[in-house]
Design brief:
The protein has a two-stranded antiparallel sheet. A hairpin with a 4-residue loop joins strand 1 and strand 2. It has a single domain, classed as Four Helix Bundle (Hemerythrin (Met), subunit A). It has 158 residues and is mainly alpha-helical. The relative contact order is 0.20. It is globular and about 50 Å long. It is 59% helix and 5% strand.
Length: 158
């Protein structure tokens, strides 16, 4: 279990083979850049909120054996306007808290826990915890790449 926890933490602020992490990407962003939205793309803020939502949902699955959301749930992708009302600092604090909460839950589990089953509302069936926890890692990697692309597309001087 410690390897999975290390990977989740390293992706946030550690040294990775891919050469970057969330902290490297997000810390330099101004408030304006964090909430910048162009065309049909998500803002960085929307992605961070989305990641926070699913990490909290995963923690619920670890605690209770069943989640409460599906992909179409209203809190999955909150509006950029709503997120702006919360502000960058609050969103990042919630994001970090969701990681700490999940990793604290996992610290008390041994690797055999990964074979235990939970009910997934999105996939409508029972799956091993290894499915959702490795999925969280894949999800974080995917969105880190998406954030990298969004940053490259920011207007100069933002």
């Amino acid at each position: 279990m410690s390897t999975l926890i290390d990977q989740l933490n390293d992706l946030q602020n550690g040294h990775n083979w891919i050469g970057t992490n969330y902290q490297n990407k997000i810390d330099p962003l101004t408030e304006k850049a964090f909430f910048y939205k162009s065309d049909q793309r998500h803002s960085v803020a929307e992605i961070i909120s989305h990641l926070t939502t699913w990490r909290s949902e995963t923690a619920l699955k670890v605690i209770s054996g069943e989640g409460s959301m599906t992909d179409t749930h209203e809190s999955n992708w909150k509006s950029n306007e709503f997120l702006q009302s919360l502000g960058k600092d609050k969103l990042l604090k919630d994001y970090q808290t969701s990681l700490m909460d999940l990793t604290e839950l996992l610290k008390n589990k041994d690797d055999s826990f990964l074979d235990d089953m939970y009910y997934d509302n999105d996939f409508k069936g029972k799956f091993s915890y290894s499915f959702v926890l490795r999925g969280m890692l894949h999800h974080d990697l995917y969105h880190l790449g998406q954030i990298g692309l969004l940053i490259k597309l920011l207007p100069p001087g933002l």
